[in-house]
Amino acid sequence: MNWKTFLALLGRDAHVARRNLVPSLLQTFLQPLMFVFIFGRVMVSSGYMPAAYKSLLLPGIMAISMVFTGVWAVAMPLIAEFQFTREIEDRLLAPIEISWLAVEKVFFGTFQALVAGLAVIPAGWLLLRPGVELNLRHPLSFAAVTLLVALFSACGGLALGCSMSQTHIGLMFSMVLTPMIFFGCTYYPWSALAHFPILQKVVLVNPLVYASEGLRGTLVPQFPHLPVLAVFVALTIFDALFLGIGLRQFHRKAVS
Amino acid sequence: MLAGIRTRDLRKIYTSPPPLASGGGFGFGNTRGKGNKQPKPEIVALDGLSLEIAPGEIFGLLGPNGAGKSTTVGILTTRVRPTGGQAWIGEHDVWAEQVVVKRRIGVVQQRPNLDFSLTAREILLFHGAYFGLDSHERTERAKALLDRFKLSDRADQMVRGFSGGMMQRLSIARAMMHDPQVLFLDEPSAGLDPQTRLLLWEIIREYNQRGKTILLTTHNMEEADALCQRLAIIDHGRNIALGTPRELKASVPGGFLLRLRFGQHAPELLARLQTLAGVREVRATTDSNDTDSDNGDHSADVYADRGGSLVSEIANLASSASIELCDVHISEPSLENLFLHHTGRSLRD
Questions:
Q1: A137 phi/psi in degrees, rounded to 5
Q2: What is residue A255's predicted lDDT score, i.e. its pLDDT?
Q3: H or E segment to which residue A185 belongs
Q4: Contact list, A87 vs chain B (CB under 8 Å)
Q5: Which of B38, B154, B195, B291 is the most buried (most CB within 10 A)?
Q6: What is the pTM of this model?
Q7: Among A2, A15, A82, A89, which would you mutate to test the B interface (most chain B Cβ atoms within 10 Å of its Cβ)?
Q8: Could you tell me what percentage of chain A is helix, strand and coil, using 3-state DSSP and rounding each to the nearest 5?
Q9: CA distance to B33, B83, B337, per residue, from B28 (Å)
Q10: With contacts defined as CB-CB under 8 Å, which chain A residues touch B105?
Q11: How confident is residue B346, by pLDDT bands cut at 50, 70 and 90?
């Protein structure tokens, strides 16, 4: 491991991210905040939704923003740089083991997802107030869940980005991310699926379920949620799984 | 600290399409069946290639597209895993000690692979940072290289808008940024205008004079002749000739090559050509790549000690045998002839 090279790679990604700051902010926050505004504000103030929905919605939106940001931040550059132009080649030739290059991408993606997730709380609160009841009883649990969710999104981005080609980007969103979001207990708690017992079991393979339920359990525990311990275990397994798949795929792409 | 390059019995068999940089020499076309029932297509890119390149040498790999040049560079630069054999940069095994090797090499790929999210100067600065150069040194070197490659006026623009030649120059500057012991240049002057090509050759010679080893691949004879101290001609992943450009050219029988095309099939005429003074070898050629297949069967290559003065004698022999001589092409001693002599096909095929 070569720290100088690792830090220089991080420096490069930070530099590029700074350059693309405004478009990536719009990309990350516009859709979730519009969702918060319509469902949390318009629907609630007009009486179609109960007032408590505001607090229920916020952790779900946070999970969506984090996963979307992490996947986007890691997968999109990888897809582009491994394509025709092979832009990533100069970094593959940097004096560091190839796996560390993938780890650097995950590291930076995790950081971006954390920023996105934490930014949703004040932004959502501003849009929804008054009436948002956050109960941060165990800050450490919340921090740990947030970190695991961010890591999951970046590892998922690595696995997706190294497994897909440029022609399949549209498919990635319509076939992977959209169903994940809708069946990820983001807009409703997992217990709300009690009337659909089969679906309720099936969605447990969706890692986003644990992300939203974990954030719900640590941020608004007054609502029903999966046990936080189960969330820890599941997210840890998904993180390790996606990291493993991602590293393997990265090697396949990097070395012919 | 000087470092040479050594390979022993390198083999590479691709079971998936080779990297884009390998050029268009591989045909995957119809080999993939539906449903994956058929065995994976296997492409032998390198078939037991052994090379020994001395420290401080400019060495050329010459061969047509798909000969295995880029694969050789790929293996030597840690980017391609060899199926068999070993490769060393200096004393270091390329596959086993990748990080050590990557510190010692600079690589210019056939296709520009610049970081499109950065400006020209940033590309050099970040490259220097990856290799642990301190900030002052990075800035100085980047400035010097931008000047040397005549890129200073566009240094702070994004490279997305650069022309092919500018991208190529910047790729070479980037490869030199960390002052590597060994420089790999895969088709360095492809797409460069003649003036820039001369600038590049000058820079390569300069770099070599500082004791650096340079491996370049090319299918440009003039470039191989002008730059390389030694050359290996490779085809189908095998080394078919090795030596200095002068030695290699001298190994072609006679030196001159006359490519003839007749109006009809004329085996007896070819036998009589063999008896002309100065003729070393006569070969009937069946060039399957010839687009005009009618002509392919009636051609012949004559290797001889002299060129122009033979033409009238050949024409006389042909007319006395009532065979029309449709076309004559004379080439002087060159690496192109050498390649043709060894493989039966032109480098540009």
A1: -80, -35
A2: 87
A3: none
A4: 113-117
A5: B154
A6: 0.82
A7: A89
A8: 80, 0, 20
A9: 11, 19, 30
A10: 93
A11: low
Q: With an 8 Å Cβ cutoff, are A93 and B78 in contact?
A: yes
Predicted confidence (pLDDT) per residue in B265-303, tens digit:
878 888 888 888 888 888 887 654 444 444 456 888 888
Give the closest-approach CA distance of B195 to chain A in angstroms: 26
Among B80, B102, B129, select the one facing A93 at the smallest CB separation. B102
Q: What is the pLDDT of residues B47-65, one digit of tens each?
A: 888 999 999 999 999 888 8
Q: Provide the number of CB pairs (under 8 Å) joining chain A to chain B.
A: 91
Q: Are B110 and B74 in contact (CB under 8 A)?
A: no
Contact A95 B99 (CB under 8 A): yes
- Tell me which of B289 and B43 has the higher pLDDT: B43
Query: In the prediction, which pLDDT does B175 show?
Result: 94
Residues 6+ apart with CB under 8 A from B82: B10, B11, B12, B46, B75, B95
Q: Residue A97 and residue B77: Cβ atoms within 8 Å?
A: no
Share of chain A above pLDDT 90, in %: 43
Residue A118, token pair as written in the block: 């934490």
In terms of Cβ atoms closer than 10 Å to its own Cβ (0-12, 13-18, 19+), residue B319 is exposed
Chain B contact set for A8 (CB, 8 A): 126, 129-130, 132
Q: What is the value of ipTM here, to two decimals?
A: 0.87
To the nearest whole number, what is the mean pLDDT of chain A?
89
Q: Which residues of A touch B78 (CB under 8 A)?
A: 92-93, 255
CB-based contacts of A170-179 (< 8 A; 24+ apart in sequence): A172/A75, A177/A67, A177/A68, A177/A71
Which chain B residue lies closest to A256 (C-alpha atoms)?
Answer: B80
pLDDT band for position B30 (50/70/90)?
A: very low
Flag if A4 and B116 touch (Cβ within 8 Å). Answer: no
pLDDT at B38: 62
In angstroms, the CA A7 to CA A250 distance is 20
DSSP single-letter state for residue B119: B
| Burial class of B192 by CB neighbour count within 10 A (0 to 12, 13 to 18, 19+) | middle
Position B32 pLDDT exceeds 50: no
Residue in B113, B115, B130 closest to A8 by CB: B130
Q: Which domains does chain B have, with CATH numbers?
A: 5-249 (3.40.50.300), 253-332 (3.30.70.1340)
